[in-house]
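re the bet — no i am not wrong, look at it urself. input seq straight from the record:
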Amino acid sequence: MKALMKKRVSKIILAVVLCGVVAFLLVSVFKPDSAPALQYQIATVQGGNLSIEITGSGNLALSSTEDLTFEMAGTVQEVLVEEGDSVEEGQVLAKLDTSEWETELTALELALLQAKINLWNAELALDRAEEDTTSDFRAWEIRIKRLQVKLAEGRLKDAEKALEEASEVSPEVTAPFDGFIINVNVSGGDEVKKGTVAAILADPNKFEVDIMVSEMDISQVEKGGRAALQADAISGISFPSKVTYIAPTATIQSGVVNYKVTVEVASLEAVVQGSNSTSQASATSQASQLREGLTVTVGIIVDQRVNVLLVPNGAITTQGGQSYVQVLSPDGTIGMRAIKTGITDYVNTEVTDGLSEGEKVVVFQGTDTPSTTPSQWPEMPDGMIPGMRGIS
């Protein structure tokens, strides 16, 4: 019995020892040699421009189209264009049969002549009445004759106006500007009324896009505000644009409140003129590639700074409402410095006070933050900092 008990105790002791050895080995294997080094790099404070933009995307649409109508009723004699045709300003697009119009002009000319004769007769009758001294009702007759003259004068003016209006209208529909035809609504032989739309003309150089702006940002958008547009299919060029319309009412979908904003692209001539001389040919070629329906991204500029000091956002920490950066001195030491900041585009921040151009600051990577004060950071013989990735 005693021998059996001794065997059990030995087994228990052996198991405890083995567990201890395994635990020791696990700790030895998985224990890191040292705490992970902070990951950061050094950035140089530089001057530059900074813009805050509200972005949105949409599809291009033609912004300048015009319905071309007939100025008079009649029968369509000929249609000279088809959908998709390019036309020049002043080009004749459609014609009416002029026989009815010419007949009308002749009738109006005769009516004008008759009105002149009637006025002449009325004036002659008035003169005779004023010269007749034998009539007992001379005063009453003179009054009637004078009224007849005024009536004839009014009818003459009406006849002149009718002839002038008929002469000014044209049986032809012409293009008011260079463009292309996007729709033709009539054919030869059609009977049309005054104001019938013959065709729709579009300016191929004027585009606009509708984007949705959130309720949080819409207060920053102003009509006439500057914007920049980039087409997904055209790389390397930004088209200057402006805000032309802000919807007064919201568009609500699934509880999300947005407002429609229309942005119009500047003329392609302005895009080309805004390019330098060496890139104007390329800008002309790329600008001419704009097409209705292209997917574009719009940035509405709501604030902008020119020639200011910029530092990466990762270099700035905030404590108690005060912003700080870690500045690297020429001798390799690091010190904390308070700064004043301006606007930020969430990549870089404007520094208004506390730094000078050319100074170097520490930019922390990811979510790592230093666990010691700058004075406790170890220095390297060559002035480098442990974990530093590079100097820019």
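see?? Residues 99-131 form the longest helix (33 residues). told u. also DSSP finds five helices and 23 strands in the chain. so pay up
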